[in-house]
Amino acid sequence: MFRLELTGALCISCGLCRDVCTRNAIGMRTSARQGVERHSGVCARPKYETFPFLATPEECDGCLECVRECPVSAIAIRARRSLALARMTSTEIVNNPG
Question: From 7, 36, 55, 85, which residue has the greatest number of CB atoms within 10 Å?
Fold first, then answer.
């Protein structure tokens, strides 16, 4: 089983990691905006996506496709149970493709 490590200061909330996940393991956290909509009582507050997370960690197979596609190198995938698998960033994957 794997875990997603996110550098929040780098993440631009683009959702590419979620979009390329063939196993649908990644979800995006959402947050409700508070603005004039909440005072009208007519419209529900809109939700916007903030940060990715492993919504279904058991589905993650560690393929690292999300890491490769992240445009700002904000994601790393680490094995939960095995210290043999090192943390890899998208820069490391590009530099060491084999």
Answer: 55
